[in-house]
Write a structure and sequence with these properties.
226 residues, mainly beta, five-stranded antiparallel β-sheet
Length: 226
């Protein structure tokens, strides 16, 4: 059963903040991507008070950075994504995006997460997949990029400025049809960028067969072995 896109949400803040996100469907997975101006000060991310796992972090070790968290089997319904900072009252421009998917394997939900970075007008990442997996790609920059488009065949759902500053965060998703997905964005100008690719593996229903034993009545009235 192919992985399907569920929903997205967003929010920006400078201290601890909540972003309401609604997960629906079965066998879900939630991805939260953050573009922050101080990577050292994020102390954790939760959804419905359940801690999320950091999947990747790419960019400057102390300042502008793209960080991605994930959670298998998130609670359904409307709940808060909560991003917590270790130092309250300090000004950090952080932009948060949540995106959820359904029909994701709950035992091994992800393939190999890939990060990349560069200075160009083409943020890109290639991930390993199989048919009916879903590829998610997030990219961010602290530069002014003017405008942005996405690669052919990719469905975009995030494209905006982070906290009304010059930083951008964007993400896309695409259903896999083969052994790999090359996902990219096109900026109108060259910029420093960081990108993360996450392969979401499809849930395969298990078919259970039942074995039955029968005893056959013989002509003499006896019972044969099952």
């Amino acid at each position: 059963m192919a992985v399907t896109y569920d929903a997205t949400s967003s929010g920006s803040a400078k201290d601890t903040f909540n972003v309401s996100h609604t997960c629906t469907g079965s066998n879900g997975y939630l991805i939260v991507s953050l573009r922050t101006s101080d990577a050292t000060d994020i102390s954790g991310v939760t959804y419905d008070s359940v801690s999320m796992t950091q999947l990747a972090s790419v960019g400057s070790s102390t300042s502008n950075r793209h960080i991605v968290y994930g959670l298998v089997g998130p609670s359904t319904g409307a709940n808060n994504i909560t991003v917590t900072f270790s130092t309250a009252g300090k000004i950090y421009d952080t932009h948060c995006r949540g995106s959820s998917f359904a029909n994701v394997d709950q035992t091994t939900p992800l393939g190999t997460v890939v990060t990349s970075s560069g200075t160009s007008n083409d943020p890109n990442v290639t991930i390993t997949t199989t048919t009916d997996d879903m590829g998610w790609c997030g990219a961010s920059t602290n530069d002014t990029i003017g405008s942005m488009t996405i690669g052919s065949g990719t469905s975009i759902y995030l494209n905006d400025t982070a906290n009304s500053t010059t930083g951008w965060q964007a993400a896309s998703y695409q259903l896999a049809t083969g052994a790999s997905l090359a996902m990219d964005f096109d900026y109108s100008v060259s910029a420093d960028w960081w990108s993360v690719g996450v392969p979401l593996l499809q849930h395969v229903p298990v078919t259970v067969f039942q074995q039955h034993s029968y005893r056959i009545r013989l002509d003499d009235g006896g019972l044969g072995a099952p």
